[in-house]
Amino acid sequence: MEKKCSHIAEYLKDVKPQSKRCEDCVKKGDTWLHLRMCLDCGYVGCCDSSKNQHARRHFEETQHPLIESIERGDTWRWCYEDEIFF
């Protein structure tokens, strides 16, 4: 049986990125590897491979489980709670 994300209907909205960079990294003077956008509020944070993992921290603070990559050419989305791509 294929595992499915249980949050899509609840959180999936038409959101726009709040930024084109990880503003939390900019504030710290740090850099990032890849950017992820929260599909609930549009927050943009750095990925788990980045030093600060701001996208994951945003999830932990807000419980907004869905993100998507906003890197050119990427088309995937991820659910932190269900740990699944969709």
Give structural notes.
This protein is of the alpha+beta class. Helix content is 22%, strand content 19%. It has helices at 8-11, 23-28, 54-62; strands at 35-38, 44-46, 66-69, 77-79, 84-85. A five-stranded antiparallel beta sheet has the order 2-1-3-4-5. 29% of the residues are buried.
What is the count of structural domains?
A: 1
CATH class (first level) name: Alpha Beta
What is the overall number of helices?
3
Strand order of the largest sheet: 2-1-3-4-5
Return the average pLDDT rounded to an integer: 94
**Helix-residue proportion:** 10-25%
The largest pleated sheet is described as: 5 strands, antiparallel
**Strand coverage percent:** 15-25%
Distance between the termini: 15 Å
SSE layout and pairing:
Blueprint: H1 8-11, H2 23-28, E1 35-38, E2 44-46, H3 54-62, E3 66-69, E4 77-79, E5 84-85
Antiparallel strand pairs: 1-2, 1-3, 3-4, 4-5
Main attributes of the structure:
86 residues, globular, alpha+beta, 3 helices, Herpes Virus-1, single chain, five-stranded antiparallel β-sheet
Quick description:
The chain has 86 residues and is α+β, with helices and mostly antiparallel strands. It is built from three helices and five strands, in the order H-H-E-E-H-E-E-E.
